């Protein structure tokens, strides 16, 4: 076959694919070395307050949380704490308390008592170091008309001067910590998973921000942060957990973790403590003497969209 | 015209959806649709469904089993 003008013949030793392949490899090597030297120069130029090169590289090559050994976890935690100190001037602690055996957390919410004050939302934002300049909130309180249970007609932007409004009732919705979580299955990089105590968590350093999990969640419980959470230093909650309210970058998906930094230390989530009407009950589903088990065994309980097979561990109940 | 969302239309099934579109004047069709699929016409039955004692026990049993497996 005659060669066409401008197109290399297959008989020629160097093909276009080979050139592109070699070029890409050389480019990658150059970028790696060039990038490192650029980082080193930038760190040197920025002075002592800048992030050390070892931290930058450590962050860059950090493994998935589940794959890290104890030493690597310690280093990652120390890096996060140093970075927070540099950025906010505040000393924070990043806990890594693991799930306890014999514990699966569950939640129940009394719809008869909820008045729609949104104190739970305020407490959640304060506890979880959610960005104050964003409208990102893990709890969504829906306002519905009496007798209407169509969530498509619910209003969660209600701004009543006083609550409860006549003829309305309120249905707070947050992560249901599904026992069969569709969000976990949707994640293409396994950045989210379910812990042994039933809490679905996110490794913020592993999340690529694709938002597939948000699409998969039928409860609107996952939220994409468009900005790095901006929290005033005086309002920063220094008691954090690696899988919870620790400082995280922008462009990742956040969610309720039943306040993992509190619940794994035997405390109640912030929303439970803040509720002025005592509508929220939280506890260990495996403990037959817990409050949550009492509610489940003695009250009229409901689950949201359970026909989807998500097995939510969040029940609503009425008096 | 009945107040009907797109989701309602599709989840009520064809007879229920058409009947709801036509309005309450066609009384027989919604009744037939409801009879064909229990709870289909009732949105609350789908979104926030009451769990019986047996269902709660069964849910807790499944949660315990999954917890043991993890």
Can you describe what's shown?
The complex is a heterodimer of chains A (about 325) and B (about 70). Chain A is of the alpha+beta class. Chain A has 9 helices and 12 strands. Chain A has helices at about 15-45, 55-60, 70-90, 120-125, 180-185, 210-215, 260-265, 270-275, 290-300; strands at about 95, 105-110, 140-145, 170-175, 190-195, 200, 220-225, 240, 255, 280-285, 300-305, 315-319. Chain A has a 4-stranded mixed sheet. A two-stranded parallel ribbon of chain A has the order 1-8. In chain A, strand 5 (about 190-195) and strand 6 form a beta hairpin. Mean pLDDT of chain A is about 85; it is low at about 1-20. Chain B is mainly alpha-helical and about 70 residues long. Helix content of chain B is about 65%, strand content about 5%. In chain B, helix 2 (about 15-20) packs antiparallel against helix 3. The termini of chain B are far apart. The model of chain B is unreliable at about 25-45 (pLDDT under 50). Strand 11 (about 300-305) of chain A pairs antiparallel with strand 1 of chain B, so a sheet runs across the interface.
Treating each run of at least 4 consecutive H or I residues as one helix, how many helices of chain A?
9
Q: Which segments of chain A are poorly predicted (pLDDT under 50) over 5 or more consecutive residues?
A: 1-19
Beta-strand percentage range of chain A: 15-25%
Compute the gyration radius of chain A: what is it?
A: 25 Å
In DSSP terms (H or I, runs of 4 or more residues), the helix count of chain B works out at: 5
Structural class of chain B: mainly alpha
| Distance between the first and last residues' Cα of chain B | 52 Å
What spatial form of chain B do the alpha-carbon principal axes imply? elongated
First-last Cα distance of chain A: 86 Å
Number of strands of chain A: 12
The portion of residues assigned to helices of chain B is 55-70%
Kindly report the oligomeric state of this protein: heterodimer
H/E series of chain B, N to C? HHHHEH
User: What's the overall average pLDDT of chain B, rounded?
Assistant: 66
Mean residue pLDDT of chain A: 87
């Amino acid at each position: 076959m005659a060669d066409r003008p401008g197109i290399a013949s297959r008989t020629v030793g160097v093909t276009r694919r080979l050139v592109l392949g070699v070029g890409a490899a050389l480019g990658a090597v150059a970028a790696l070395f060039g990038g490192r030297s650029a980082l080193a120069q930038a760190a040197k130029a920025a002075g002592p307050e800048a992030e050390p090169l070892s931290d930058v590289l450590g962050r860059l090559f950090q493994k998935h949380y589940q794959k890290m050994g104890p030493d690597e976890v310690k280093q990652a935690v120390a890096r996060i704490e140093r970075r927070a100190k540099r950025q906010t001037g505040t000393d924070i602690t990043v806990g890594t308390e693991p799930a306890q055996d014999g514990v699966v957390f569950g939640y129940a919410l009394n719809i008869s008592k909820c008045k729609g004050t949104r104190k739970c939302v305020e407490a959640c934002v304060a506890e979880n170091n959610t960005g104050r300049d964003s409208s990102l909130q893990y709890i969504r309180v829906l306002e519905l008309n009496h007798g209407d249970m169509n969530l498509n007609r619910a209003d969660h932007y209600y701004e009543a001067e006083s609550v409860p409004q006549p003829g309305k009732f309120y249905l707070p919705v947050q992560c249901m910590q599904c026992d069969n979580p569709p969000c976990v299955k949707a994640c293409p990089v396994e950045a989210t998973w379910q812990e042994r105590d039933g809490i679905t968590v996110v490794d913020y350093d592993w999340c690529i921000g694709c938002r597939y999990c948000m699409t998969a969640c039928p409860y609107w419980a996952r939220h994409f942060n468009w900005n790095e959470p901006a929290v005033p230093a005086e309002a920063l909650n220094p008691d954090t957990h690696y899988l919870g309210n620790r400082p995280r970058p922008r462009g990742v998906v956040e969610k309720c973790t039943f306040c993992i930094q509190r619940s794994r230390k035997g405390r109640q989530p912030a929303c439970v403590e803040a509720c002025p009407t005592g509508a929220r009950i939280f506890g260990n589903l495996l403990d037959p003497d817990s409050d949550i088990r009492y509610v489940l065994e003695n009250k009229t309980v409901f689950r949201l969209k359970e026909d989807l097979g998500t097995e939510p561990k969040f029940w609503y109940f009425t008096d | 015209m009945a107040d009907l969302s797109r989701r309602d239309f599709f989840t009520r099934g064809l007879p229920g959806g058409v009947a709801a579109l036509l309005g309450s004047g066609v009384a027989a069709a919604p009744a037939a649709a409801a009879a064909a699929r229990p709870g289909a016409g009732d949105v609350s039955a789908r979104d926030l469904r009451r769990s019986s004692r047996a269902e709660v026990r069964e849910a807790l049993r499944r949660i315990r089993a999954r917890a043991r497996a993890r």
